[in-house]
Every structure is written in C-alpha cells, then in structure tokens.
Amino acid sequence: MTIADIKKNAETKMDQSIAAFKNNLQKIRTGRANPALLDTVQVEYYGSFVPLSQVANVALIDSRTISVQPWEKGMGAKIEKAIRESDLGLNPASMGDLIRVPMPPMSEERRKEMTKLARNEGESAKIAVRNLRRDANESVKKLVKDKLASEDDQKRAEAEVQKFTDKHIAEIDSLVAGKEQEIMAV
C-alpha cells in the first residue's frame, strides 16, 4: 500500500463517517414532522417484522403531520399499533385507510435534550474521524519503518491527512449547529 492509497482510503472512510452521521441526525426529532422519523418502526407482516416503509407509503401532509398509507387493507391496525408502541411518543389516528401521525409540540426541556443528543452524535462522529486519522498516520509510519517511504513523505502525508481531518470536523460542527437551530426553532 502506498502513501497515496492510505490518504485516499482515509478520506473515503471519513466521508462515510459523515454520511452515517447525517443519517443519524435525521433520526433526531425536531419540531417539524419528518418521514425519516418512522424508519425505525418495525411492523408485523405475515409473521415477521419488517420496516414500516416496506408495507406502507409514508409522506408529509403538512409540517406537523405524517401520513401513512398501508398498501394492504388489513395492515392499518398493525401499523397503528407498531407506531404507538415504538419509543417515539407518537399517537397515530386512523381515518379510513389513511393513518395520520400528528407531531406533538416539544417542550423547552425536550428541545434541550434533543440538542444534547445532536451534540453527542457529533462528538461520536468526530471521534470516528480522529480514529481514522490515527490509523492513516500509523500506516504511514509503518511504511517509513519498513523503508518504503522517507520521513519527508511521512511529514507531508500526515499534514494532508490532518487537512482532511480538519475539513471533516468543521463539516460535522456545521451540521450539529444547523440541527440545533432546527430543533430550537419553534
């Protein structure tokens, strides 16, 4: 493995960490409704549990209401039960075939809990990026130790990996700040 491979690999993995972090941020509840909020809900479907999105169409009615349209007639009650029993604190209401899931307004205390959760997710993502930096630097040091690269190459590679790290950590900080604003907006 060359220094170029190590740098490319580190940057790719850092990008994947950012993508996973963005996915985790979407699951954190804000004051507005978001169909991704129901991604974790599992519904019993012919004896096995499947994600809600595989048995129903999930969409937004307005900024505070999610609609769930089951694809089969008899699934409405099971979907409603699964949403109610999930730890999301939501109370779905059936209207014929359509299930409406209103988002209750969040209290100030709950908003602060959510911002704390967003910060924790951000810190976990930063730790992942820093671990990738450490792994890349150790790989470069191993190349130098095995006489496959010079110490000057090592210094340059470590500086470039640090630039990637700084860029990704700044992106994480901006994503956390954006999510906090979204949560605190009433």
From TrEMBL:
One Pfam family of this chain: RRF
Cell compartment(s), UniProt: Cytoplasm
UniProt key word Cytoplasm: yes
GO cellular component entries: cytosol
UniProt GO MF annotations: ribosomal large subunit binding
GO terms (BP aspect): cytoplasmic translational termination
Gene3D superfamilies reported for this sequence: 3.30.1360.40, Ribosome-recycling factor
Keywords: Cytoplasm, Protein biosynthesis
InterPro entries with a match to the protein in the record: Ribosome_recyc_fac, Ribosome_recyc_fac_dom, RRF_sf
Biological function: Responsible for the release of ribosomes from messenger RNA at the termination of protein biosynthesis. May increase the efficiency of translation by recycling ribosomes from one round of translation to another.
Family the UniProt entry places it in: Belongs to the RRF family.
Name assigned to this protein: Ribosome-recycling factor
Origin species: Acidovorax carolinensis
